[in-house]
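Researcher: Before we compare anything, I want clean individual predictions. No alignment, no superposition, just each chain on its own. First chain goes here; please echo the sequence and then give the structure tokens.
Model: Echoing the first chain and its structure:
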Amino acid sequence: MEVIAIQKSTLEGMKNELKELLELTENATQKYAPIFKEEKWLDNQEVCLMMNITKRTLQTYKDKGLLPYSRLNRKNYYKLSDVQALLKAGQPYKSNEDGVIDQ
């Protein structure tokens, strides 16, 4: 077991910085929690399964602005209501078994 000795003032400074970091995290959580509670968010795989489309078709929907999305940590998320609205409107592009997009 290794023992490391530091000055009490240094330890107190570290404690204070950790408390500030915790407060920032709690504030951010409180600020954005209502957004995620209001709406269910889906990832790429969930949307593809729900709509019965390929990832390429999903990319086409994004490229053409047909399906809005948000990006968080290099991952895309879609509002369930947006996916349902696109399903209700009818899918403008859908891949067939060969991966060819039919219009």
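Researcher: Okay. Second chain, same rules.
Model: Second chain and its structure:
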Amino acid sequence: MALQRLRTETRYSEIVIHNGTVYLAGQLADDYNADASEQTRQTLANIDLMLSEAGTDKSRILSVTIYLKDMARDYASLNQVWDAWVAPGTAPARAAVEAKMYRPDVLVEMSVIAALP
């Protein structure tokens, strides 16, 4: 299978597809003024959009790495939104880490690997 890069910019591609696997660049919310719950909802909506563009969906996610600005403050609210988003029986492998973000108002970022149908 050929390597595909979608939404390519100077430094990265939003979507890379190779050998039946979809790799998403770190996904963010659209509104950085929102709280962690809303940033999580927006980030997951952007993941849905990117996966659809790549030809797959959230039920085929293999792995997610979640970066939180403040784990102690935001982990519970992230999980509440996450649990409502993930369909039963389709939970991917997942890691969540606290990270210094590229902007002080970014609270959540997620990197995703998914399979094509």
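Researcher: What stands out in the second chain?
Model: Helices lie at 36-54, 71-85. Additionally, The chain has a mean pLDDT of 97.
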